Records
---
Amino acid sequence: MNNALFIVFAVLAVAICFSNSLPNDFILDDYQIVAINPAIRSVSPVHLLSVPYWGSTSNAGIYRPLTLFSFSLEYPLWNRWPGGYRLVNLLLHAITGILVFALARGLLQSNAAAWAAGALYLVHPVHTEPVIELTGRAELLAAMFFIAAWLLFRRGNYVLCGIAFLLSLLSKENAIVFPAVIVLDRWITEGSFRKVFAGFDAWKRFAPVAVAAAVYLGFRRWALGSMLIPESVQYFNGRWTLFERELTSGRVFLKYFQLLLAPVTVTGDYDYNSIPLAHARDWDAWLGLLLIAASIVFAIRIVKKQPVISFAILFFYIALLPVSNWIVPTSLLMTERHLYLPSLSICLIAATIWASIPAIQVRRIIAVGVMAVAGLLCIAHNYLWRDNLSFYGNIVRVLPNNLRGRQGYGVALLEAGRPVEARKQFEAGIRIMRTPWMLVGLAGVDMTLDGSCANARPLLDEALRIQPAEIFARWLLADCFQREGKLAKAEEAFRRAVADAEFPDPKLLRAWGSSLEKLGRSDEARDAYRRAALLDP
């Protein structure tokens, strides 16, 4: 009966907190991965096992075939309606919350505490990004299968545990820490590492997990050709030193702590230069590292007196290890979605403290207050993800030095017919870093305001010198050639833009088809139109 009640509660809580996001548009990577991705237009699981997440020619070092497979199963139902995919995200989040409840009941040995942990996990406002962003599906699937594998391991179903772990890895690579989590769980339960690995039965427990990890790493190597993220797509193009990387993590974790405890302001993106790289003189970075070290020492010291709190603290750092940049550099400094699984730690700690309060009336007041505030914050945060204009506008408001925020807001303003305001965003972005994307944005503004390419051409040429495969620079250059009547050069520029794009935009394909048609190459034009229609019927 208690399980059934929590299932009903989970569905209602998710509906109340997140259903206002269903009308939201495609945001951030949603457009490329879902709206125009040809890989999800057919159900082909074997093919998806063999290709990177960002397309067959991608070198981004990301491999998530199960996430793409889930989108391909849904595409016949939703096509290009983002609300359908988001509805499935909400369902997955509810299921994950139910699994958290089941896990917490075993860890905390208290129904009341398990309810508190599960409820807080379901409505925590920091989960807005992974639940609302369609590509947050990777976090949702990985966490769902991760916790399912954990439950199966604790119940002695080791083969099924290995299968669930493999599914978690195929959803997102950060699940690779699962072996460390179950070892930590057994260590705190058994009281020593020697007992964890003692005897044949111990090795029998871990063998399916090891096999699953080996199978995943083999598939990853086959699809990507390497295990790590290439330097060219690492954060700051891999130009930061090991010392800068480790020290900057102090600033990052201070932000993570704030998001877990007081997620009043969220942005969904922390691109360069939202959190500046730290140097030896930056006391706040050292403070962050000190808090990390102190909390780990504290967790180890209280392991016998408060095993759950000790476990929760250590779990937090283990779960974040793959994306922390501590061991290997990644493509991102931080994101809110990285907290989707690690936030289980704050839920366990809060539930333990809440359940220890002797006065039932006080517990009820705290529970109602926390749920009400968290629910209101979730509902408010969902509106920030309504469309690109609201999303990037919020980033610029909260993090004015966010490079992607300036670029995205400029593009959104330009598409909304507000080129003068767009120019201000691109110019602000160039003051942060002179990137090809900012130059292309300014060129687009000039072409809109002037009706000619006179001022835009130097900007496009500079963008292509910096990044010869810059798709949008080629696209605008092709438009310039068309305005000048140079149809052959326009077609060549369109062709190169299409060739360089991992997922060619339907509008780009149609523009290319039109240029081919003007040159009398009707068969090729029909093929371009056909490709566009496949992506956007």
Note: The mean pLDDT is 93.
---
Amino acid sequence: MRTLSATLLAAQKKADRLPYVGAKVYDYEAGIKRLSWTRLYEGSEPDNHHGIAFDGQGSMHRIRAAAGNILYRQKITSPGEASDYSQWTQVATDCDGPCAIAAYGAKVYIFYRTTGNVLWKYYSHDYGQSWDDAQLVAYDEVHFMAACWWSTGNVVVCFALKSNEINGIVLDTSTQVASQHTQTYAAPHTHILSSTIGIGATFNPFWPACEIVFAAKQSDTPYDHYDLFRTWFSNTYNFLALESFLMSPDGEDITYEYPDCHLPANAELYEPNRIVAVEKYAGTTAYTRPLACHMVKGTYWSDSTFTEPKPFLDISSSYGLRLQSTADYWWMERPDGVWRAPRPADSPLDLTRDIVSLAADSSQLSALRLELDNSKGQYASPGEGELASLRFRSEIVLELGYKTTAGKETSAAGTYWIDSWEYSSKPNMSRFILTCLDGWGLMDRWTARYQMRWNKDEVNPKSVWQILYQLLARAGIKLTNTPPKPQSSAINNFYPDFTVNPGTRGDSAIRKLLSFVPDRLVFRGQEAFTKNLLADEESCYSYGTDHVILAGQYTQAVTLSRSRALGRDASDNRILEEALDWDLLQLAIDILEQDYDPNLQTAARAQERADAILRARAQEAEPAVITIGTNVGQELLDVVEVTDKRCGISQENYRVQTIHIDYDRRKGIYEQRLTIGAP
């Protein structure tokens, strides 16, 4: 149960309660600001390798490779809508394609591969007024490049990518001394790469490290595949083990190419590392389409918790897009285009004063219905003007509370995402009604784009909790155990060979995964947590004494009396473990449920599964429903104590299974209906 102040606890138990309900709308995607891109320039430059950086005066520097081994650069002072992005200055006549740029303060560094098959540097220490050039390193057969400044010092890092090798070239700009740090992806390495197709990098001061994304084709069994991989370059100049977060099997004509990533300096909480890449389809009808995704709020690059990459811009893009930022804007470019999106988040839209009624039901995918007064026509134009934040999939943060002796006090009652709206009218009445999804609804709307598989071999094993962590991330939800909740051994120590096939809905995948363990999942705001439902868990709240039960219905029913889990050990020997309810069996009630899973390779894992099945069915055997004045701190899976002497119930513990909230200011209704079961 959420923690409430003493005054709020007292207020919700009073007979003359004074409700207070609030709701605000944010144009966020699970806590991350959604970007609205505006194109500032549309030119005719041919697509090719390119890059963008900003110096300490805010000037934009762009580069592009062109036919005839030409490399061009551009400097735009105070870039904006009126700037001329069509003027270019020739830098070199020996550029063999791959190039990169980075800047900090007065320094601007351009790197490229020469026709002589070495890497070259072209650099300025006075904001691009004068330039020098020299060989960077003698490193040949480079196909793709990226660069980023290391913090605020003198070091810039150029990343050079071959077909199966990456080189982090560390250049001290104060001495022009360079060092090389390579990682090869060939046998016997875990990831065997046969080709690469682009790289991006950005600096994160938290670690500190350069966070890197690159595209490659991996040789694998049973089939090769094209992936977007993440790694990083640490402050000891080592690369983190690769992990794929987007994959397409060879033979399906889809490849992922030319990625980039960027994290703004002094990023706000709603600003993560963002990734762009190209999805290329070579079949009928062919396309090259930019995709975008981002880190899940509050997670780390090493966790590979990226949202589902999705189309976001109606253009064709062969060489991808490059990202950068200034204090006020995100910037994105390619040779013939420049885009920007505001960085600062808009103030939330406060719906509180217009709330007429609401219904929230944790058992439904459309979990919130919010009815607003529209008598002044104030909601006539969603997405415009003062309603700019009111768009499909905008977030609604719901607050439930009471007017107390300390004022208006509330408790966070969940985050919801707008799925639809409707207008309703009668004589002298106009309503604007929002229907919203919760976390389960978001996962229902997500479907797997390709086959996702964990633990097909012993490389980089993932437990049930870790798989769940990555699945929820696709919808932007962070799985957390803060503050700590009880967890079963199985959820952290069972490593199933688990496959999510293309087209599988996210909620189906999660429910299948959770069927392996006794733990349950609860969404809380933009996060979720798991909880092992221990039979001896203490109650956190009492109903029927100080907090009156308005109505109650209590049932006891026959349920499962025996569960059986079957598996196979490493030698293919059969494993069978059971859990039994002897009270029912002694009444000659033998109801059996069996589960065969080849992942159950030890007796301990099989016994955990049998116990989990019997426990889940036992919790369904004592369904009850109580109606109460709203407890604004109540959460799913809490254990509560119930006393209802009218039905002979005295200090019995139950577990909260679903929560339904009704509020209607016209009718004076502010109630909760809790479905509860055995603890």
Note: The longest helix spans residues 603-619.
---
Amino acid sequence: MHAPQLEQISFQPIQRPADAGNDARLHNEEVLLGSLLLFWRNRRLFAGAALAALLLATIFLLVGTKQYRADSSVRLDFESSGTAASSRVAVEAAAVIESEARMIRSRSVAEDVVARLKLADNPRFSSRPGILTSVLQFLVQSSASIDESAVAGGAPSVPRSPAFMRAVTTVMANTTVENDSKSYLITVAYRAGSASDAAMVANALVQEYLRERHVQSLLASMARLQSEQTQLALRLGEKHPTFQTAKTHLDEVKQRVHAWETTSQTIQSVSLDKFSAEIAIPAQAPEAPTSPNPKIVYAIAFLAGLLLVTAYLLIRQHYDTSLASERAVIDRLGVRCLGIVPDLSGAFGPQYRPALVEAVRGVSVSAGLDVRSPNCKVVLVASSLPDEGKTQFASTLATVLTDAGQKVLVVDAVPHREGRVIDIPSTETVAGSVTTTRDVTPALYQTIDLRHHGAFASIESFERYLAAARALHDVIIIKAAPVLMLSDAAKLGRFADMVVLLVRWRRTPGQAVADAIRRLRDAGIRTSGVVLSHVDLKEHGPDHLRDQHSYLAEYRDFYSSIAPLS
């Protein structure tokens, strides 16, 4: 057995300019154009994602929990306090307003509201919170110690039930206090799932704040009267009329303190030493929910849908190693791309078969098979994986070469269960014929004997068969089994003058093609070129504007107008 020398295998990589990869501007333009084309090609996916996001947003707005916000305002008046130094009051106003705002946010006021309204018995306030609410409540409890210092003279804390504490935490978590030192206004806002609850709690917070400040004022007056009464008792005695008047006044203050602590009467204003506080605007039940805002929800949903699709496409593109253009073949594999084979099963139907024939004819010209040579050329058609389009390419290439006046032998060396060669049907033309192994005289040539799993029974018999066939044909096309599946391609490649590797467009992983080329190279066989098969010209054209094969898609009607339909 005499195997052909490796020098007979044609492999000439394309020489590109040395500075082509260093042109940053060209690279950025290609990346930008590729991204825009990627998005345009998947515009239907963007539209579907946007519609789905808007549908989910609509469902959320219909069935989601709505939040209502009610506001109640308290105005502080520093002029009614009778302070002479007005400039000093103006300087202290900001500090006083901030202190009063902290008092409204305090736990003491929240506990009074829960106790007054009996919110511990209301499931909307005392139910067990979810995970997110628990986190928010934990943050509120962490900052509650700051506000506790704002309360002075309050009653000592007493043990509370878990439902009561949950209601207090809920009230504190949904309360917002905003103060304006210029207008002397403190706005108390409360958010709730019910408009009536929001207004009720907002008004209750203001009422309990004023009540507590009024009680504190009464307690301060009571302490002052007690001090005066003690001094009068020491100076005048307990039977003196002045002492009795002070005692009567003190008893009245005590009754007023008890009445304010035990009754639920409302209060509109309270006068303190340095200022007075009054309800400027009571809370009203809002007619429309403040959240969720439909405009914001739809905008967020729309943008989220687009961003998710964009991220999905970019990630898929980043990890996609399939080959989609001539440049990708050259850049990733370092192997010459001989051409493409259009897919006629999609948008390009059988009426565009002349475009397929012309594409294969272009492959034959690139491979140097169009010129008749005195010596027979053996072409091995292989692929890295199954279903790459070898049969269609081999038969079309044989037809093209036969039309050019060459005698062609097509050998299907892919093993089948029958354990023999499966011949491609022959077609007669004026210039010549596509000859199969069945057309060769059995007395002179032996048929390739394959076992069920693809191993050759006698490689010597195939060598003798091939040597005899070379004398009668101009081109012998051998269709081999996938390189990564069986070792037949490596064995047959030793007898070939040219190895053509079929790669399915946008489907075969680039790593699989690289492994197939490496496996052939390890066997001493170099791949002459790659042919992209099953190319969808409708997508190939917009994706690769600078690809020479894009004109097949743009001017596909030209071929049908000059060639007969088959």
Note: The chain is about 50% helix and 15% strand.
---
Amino acid sequence: MRSFVFAFACSLLVGPIGGCSGSIETADTSGGTMKGVVTYSGPLPCSEDGHVVGDAVIALYSTDALPPPTGFGLDAHKIAVVSGDVLFAQVTDQIPVNPDGSRACPAPGPSVQVSAVWNVDGMDAGVYQARAWFDYDGGWRASSVVADMVSKGDIAGGAISNVANMLAGDLPQYVNIEIGTIGQDGRYEMPETGFVRQDVDVALGLPIPTNRPYFHISSMRRGGDANGVPSPTLSPTNEDLAMPSDLRLYDASTLRVHESLYWLQLQTGVPESESVVAMQPPYVFQLGDPLMVQRYDVNRDGIIDAYDHITGTSLPVAALGPVVRLMKARDDKSNRWLGTQTAPLVLMNLVVIAEGMTGLTDLLSATDYVDPVPNGAITGFIRPTAVCLEDAKDPNSKTVIVTPHVSDSQDPSNQVIGDEEAMRVDTAEQLGRSLAGVKIVYGCLVPGKFGISAVYPATGQTWRVPNESGVCLPGESKNGDACGSRKMLESQSRAFEIGPAVDPSYCQAQRKALSEPDPIRDYCLTASERAKYIDGTLWGGAPSPL
């Protein structure tokens, strides 16, 4: 199975797109400099209006903030862009051109190999990895969340030590690139005269076979009631997408727990009523492909086997991708919920099942998913368990697993976390955290809005709802279903909510029972949430006496 792990969530552009004056221009000449050669091996590019379509994009990530699925980095530290005109200057005479300037693309043929120099200035001291790709269709835009990532047909790569093995199907081994010198405290620092790292060579050669995992929430179901009877499936509005922070499962046994869980159905693309708008500017979604479901390397050991199961169980309940997560949104007072809260980072992993499956029992025999299987929709079960990362950039910082109840409501022997040590080990492996810093705490979940993201483990391609296509941005005026002249996509506006508790007094009692230092208070809450946590109003209800 060929897999290529990288992703790009880009926010800072340091070179021009489409310029012809050189391989890269940079405005900042302070700090560190990185330079090298980018080499492309692949099909000839397309042309349009007398220029090559697309650019080579080199995204430089700090090793303590790598992008999904390797890490939780949201932005590249710097981005270098080599224009297509410069990269393919050696083979200009081979690139097809239409007399009227319309887009002309080559017929299938042999690959070409071309190279160009690249550089970027203004880097901070630290250790970096370079992810890179050639934007074959010219659709990449650094400033747009819905177009800031590699897409189907792009030619990917990076600064990699095992290029030949990667092209044969192995996972890439990214080179760690140092900028600066190590100071007395063991940290990297920038010399007064600056620092230049030369010969950072980047290889591009692997075609990306999939589009991003575009999705919308087509239906949801609330968990079972006190008698274990689930609610009817419904087509949710934003108000329906909520789960109480003190949810107690009726049956927590591994093979029946899905009957008590909330779940979301993620359908590929957007609703048919939005598809025409979604495929046109300014969005240009690449719709039409199904979601690709397959098993993935949960414990990051390079192979897919029985150890790659859902967290917290010793049973071989296969973990399927795309990886679907709820990530607590940053409260920017705008009700858009576009940004992810990073200090602390709070997430919930969903258990994914494929079309035709009804529960976790089907995952015991998911042997057909070693290779990708197309699905029109997937279902994600939401376990009432959150993970708080004190510092997502520091794997040795505290990791707190929070769940409201020890056992289900019908049988004290049915524990919500059946194997605590397995849960700690699995969480550490899956999130790349130090096992020594992982702690399990029984307390109510942190209320708030959560974005919903789907990530292809093999490529790192990500889609997140809500996104900018579903909301009005600063400076845009809302007019019905439009933001100025731009029509919104309502399906892309939805955020999930961990809401108030059914019984706030239970949450208050759990808080008081925790010993000092309190891990929920210290590692799961923002400063504004701590005051509400201490007086007991975080989950609704009246303040409680200390």
Note: The chain has two domains: 32-207, 215-535.
